[in-house]
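Async update (no meeting this week)

Hi team, since we skipped the sync, here's where things stand on the single-chain job. The sequence we agreed to prioritize is pasted below, unchanged from the tracker. I ran it this morning and attached the output directly underneath so nobody has to dig for it. Comments welcome in thread, and please keep replies under the output.
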Amino acid sequence: RTQAEMAHTCRGTINLSTAHIDTEDSCNIVLSNGGRTYHLKANSEVERQRWVTALELAKAKAIRMRNNQSDDSGDEEPASQSDKSELHGTLKTLSSKLEDLSTCHELIAKHGAALQRSLSELENLRLPADSSEKIKAVNERATLFRITSNAMINACRDFLDLAETHSRKWQRALQYEREQRIRLEETIEQLAKQHNSLERACRGAPGLSSSTTGITSTTKGSLQSAKGEASDEDEETEYFDAMEDAPAFITVTADPKHHRRSGSNLSGASEGHPEDWNLEDSVFESSNQSSYNESTCKDLQPKKRRRTRIPDKPNYSLNLWSIMKNCIGKELSKIPMPVNFNEPLSMLQRLTEDLEYHELLDKAVNCESSTEQMCFVAAFSVSSYSTTVHRTAKPFNPLLGETYELDRLEEFGFRSLCEQVSHHPPAAAHHVFSKRGWTLWQEITIASKFRGKYLSIMPLGTIHLEFHSSGNHYVWRKVTSTVHNIIVGKLWIDQSGEIEIVNHKSKDKCQLKFTPYSYFSRDVPRKVTGVVSDADGKAHYVMSGTWDEKMECSKIVHSSHGSTSTEGKQKTVYQTLSPKVLWKKYSLPENAENMYFFSDLALTLNEPEERVAPTDSRLRPDQRLMESGRWDEANVEKQRLEEKQRAVRRRREAEAVEALEEGKDYEGYIPLWFERKVDAVTGELICIYKGGYWEAKEKQDWSLCPDIF
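Output:
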């Protein structure tokens, strides 16, 4: 399939050019791409090998087609001019050849008539009988030749007329398409300007104050998470601001001393005990006290002094529209971008930033109840988005085999390792071990699309979190991030979608909804709401807050079914105790606006360290040059690294094709510190840490590391 055809395939289609093909045993095949995995079973080992060979050949062909399309794709303006000149040259050559054909037609007609006359004259001469017969036979053949030549000449004349007619049609169609493209670009630019004007007008309009009458979310019927889907985002999906939805559930704060309600209309209610909600509880803290992060970190002072600032961001101007107008509809990871759009961190370091509020997981270890623990896990899943609110710059795409370690075992009790395990599609594997009782691992593939006015970033893959003592195993996925005002106006980021966190041991669930921003909504911007329920579906806690500021938890003491909304959905009324703050965002450091809005942790991520692997992101030269403010040199270095990676990829693809032609198996790129396994919980093929990195660091034996920089 071509790239254009792949953009309109049915849901469930796997793109072979970016798929992983593995064999489990003698008969089973595992085919995976991002978050989608298919398990195929053959009747015999011979049939399995035939299928694997056919799939590998098809994959190699798809890779060649994709590379040909990538090599042909460049700046569209010069291409359109060259296409225009090429079309005119082709038409000119065709006209010249048709003129030559017309000349040949005249010559054939002339010489054919002369030959016919000569043969007629010979036939009229008095010659021997056998000669007359031969001349007669030659004359018949000449007649047949003349008839055939006339038929060919007539067909050529028809072709000439048809070519002239259609060439005019093609020229008109090409001119129409050019005009449509120019008109579309002008329309997009005008829409962006109108969008920006409307935003300024709405911000200045009165009567858009926020309302605090209740917490709204979505009931079970509308909170289904896409478990088996790689992405709920369709290629043609367009988003619009929606009017404020009617609340699907309502929370009412109850008095702990008088929380019980009488009446027969509360059938099916979930009862709780307010005495369990102790303000001095060892796990939960009252919302009027200091936040957990500030009060519990006094004994976690770093033993090593870390840097608190980086060089200020240079003020370089760049025409974004001149670059982005030719990128509409293309995959972002395939568009060459200057470092002007980047921040001096790689995607591996951004992934490690999810651990900024790791104290939430340390706190969750001490929870006695799995539903209480779920609250802290939910707050942790939301906290990972707090660093994105002002971070509109793009992180560096890691090179294949690039790694990043964050060793905070002595300071905060955890060690983190990331590795780029695939380049197309870009995929990173992450593993974190904490000696305080938890392990986190994930493999994330980033799918992104530029859609004119905004950029959609869809993380694919699952996040796993396991607590050592209890064995509770939590799994969830990330939501979609959207960067608005790409062309005109101030860039801003929004998070939207739903997260379903599942404890696969106790079957507890937490369903969180990230409400997309709307001009017409009276809700608090960046709102997140959700409900924590047990395996029987009984609701225990209500989660509420914003993904850029804080998350609170309210214990449910009573629930009942309320009235039905206009859309036919039944509302649920939750009577809760006073909310308590589980997580609150750290304030940004001084002068953060000139340091890419980095948090305290982000400022230390690219700090040079000794004894790290030679593939570590800290050693990436273009990223280091950009952080130092030498952007022109960084752009040159970035192009060198990308070309070096492309050369390695072409060599690897050639080896794969050669091996397949010889009937040999070709494993392709094998990650250094991770290995692909079928996850026992989700059934997905995922990269899991296989060990060896920290031992290699201790011995300073990096012989396995490739030369990628």
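Quick observations from my side:
The mean pLDDT is 79.
The CA atoms of residues 332 and 448 lie 6 Å apart.
Reply here if anything looks off.
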